[in-house]
Design goal:
alpha/beta, two-stranded parallel sheet, 16 helices, about 50% helix, globular
């Protein structure tokens, strides 16, 4: 099936308005004209249209033509933010906590970007961290995470506040100067890359498609685990040192939540994308989730709603035991996307409070037949679509799948996903 929704008769709403209204209607727990199509993507835009992952990470503009073709082929109602992480500044700063394609790591051109979990806060350093988190981050975290920033550990910021100007001699240290130069170069390279990223996003919007995910934010637990303590370490801290966990998350969220809201507003975003990964059924008990994970996540969600942003919360992994807990949000203002959840349970428990994104297992798109894809669409629509508040999405972000299955997915939604 070909979609020509950008052909607009006289007096009709522009296509981007039609899609935005459809999405907002579903978020408000009502029935739009049909179930909105919201595919979750990773490297699909590149791999599906003949661009290497490395090329996309070097120049976001390389995805402009693929995104235009993607929208023509599958007519999504919400397009996942296609701007990848930029290779050049990561190499300049000596980023150690990730791997990416290309000569720097000697990896093939289509190797996906990969985060590397590591702890930058030892069990013996909690008191040092709490004494001055910013000082600890500058002296202990950044020099270890980024090879070009070793000199930051030699800076005493308190000395710069004194009346004696001689304290600024510390910035004459060659190692300090090298780190400051690396920071400036990295910043300029990020800005240059993002010029192409803005051009890419604007090309999608001008073509009539709203974009989501351009303003991301992590909840305090995930953010602190990813960037300071380490994922496995923080999960174990819940058992051994829960008071440290709670204090760290409260302080972290007090700074990062306002910053995330401000960044989203500066980007003129209408949503705040919140990917979750530490809070899954497999990582912590429901009791620990409610006590240590949910409170600061709820603060982030509530702050986004208060700022007129739609929280799009992606619940990675299995989430069956958390459903009652996550209903404590402003009604009709939040969208939860699920990777692995019982459809009947989530519709019954979460559906009256928040919109749901689900319906297609990515494994089926990768390995199934078009007929199996269509059958899965019908089954999920039967459970999740009645009454509205539902977005058709997939379980985890796509890299590449057979075109026949993608068309079968979109066509089945067009065939069976209409309310009127």
């Amino acid at each position: 099936m070909e979609f020509n929704n950008n052909e607009m008769p006289a007096g009709a709403l522009p296509p981007i308005a039609v899609r935005s209204i459809r999405n907002k209607t579903a978020i408000s727990l009502q029935e739009p004209d049909r179930v909105p199509f919201m595919p979750s993507m990773n490297n699909f835009y590149a791999l599906h249209y003949g661009v290497t992952i490395e090329e996309s990470m070097k120049d976001a503009r390389s995805l402009i033509k693929p995104l235009r073709k993607f929208c023509e082929d599958y007519d999504p109602d919400w397009v996942w933010n296609p701007v990848p992480f930029p290779i050049k500044p990561m190499e300049t700063i000596g980023h150690k906590q990730a791997r990416w394609p290309g000569a720097y790591h000697n990896l093939p051109a289509n190797t996906p970007y990969q985060y590397v979990d590591r702890s930058y806060l030892s069990e013996d350093d909690w008191e040092d961290y709490f004494r001055d988190p910013s000082y600890y981050i500058m002296h202990n975290v950044l020099p270890e995470k980024f090879g070009a920033l070793k000199g930051l550990g030699m800076i005493n910021p308190y000395a710069t506040t004194g009346q004696v100007i001689l304290s600024y001699m510390q910035f004459a240290n060659p190692a300090v100067q090298d780190s400051l130069k690396a920071l400036m170069q990295t910043a300029n390279e990020v800005a240059q890359f993002m010029e192409g990223g803005v051009e890419l996003i604007m090309s999608i919007i001008k073509n009539g498609y709203p974009v989501y995910g351009a303003a991301p934010a992590c909840c305090a637990f995930d953010d602190f685990a990813d960037n300071v303590r380490g994922l496995m370490e923080l999960c174990m801290d819940i058992i051994t040192d829960p008071e440290y966990v709670d204090e760290a998350l409260e302080k972290w969220s007090a700074i990062t939540i306002p910053a995330a809201i401000s960044a989203a507003k500066m980007a003129h975003s209408e949503d705040l994308f919140i990917p979750l990964h530490c809070g899954v059924d497999n990582f912590m008990s429901l009791e620990n989730y409610e006590k240590h994970y949910w409170p600061t996540l709820k603060k982030l969600i509530d702050a986004a709603v208060k700022a007129d942003l739609t929280p799009i919360v992606f619940c990675e992994g299995k989430y069956d035991t958390r459903l009652d807990c996550i209903t404590d949000v402003p009604k009709g203002k939040v969208l939860y996307n699920f990777e692995n959840v019982d459809y009947a349970a989530v519709k019954k428990i979460v559906g009256p409070y928040a919109a749901i994104g689900a319906g297609m297992r990515t494994q089926t798109l990768m390995n199934g037949t078009p007929e199996q894809v269509e059958d899965e669409v019908r089954r999920s629509l039967d459970i999740l679509a009645p009454g509205g508040g539902f977005f058709m999405s997939n379980s985890f972000a796509l890299d590449d799948v057979p075109a026949a299955n993608m068309h079968a997915w979109r066509n089945a939604l067009e065939k069976y996903g209409r309310y009127r």
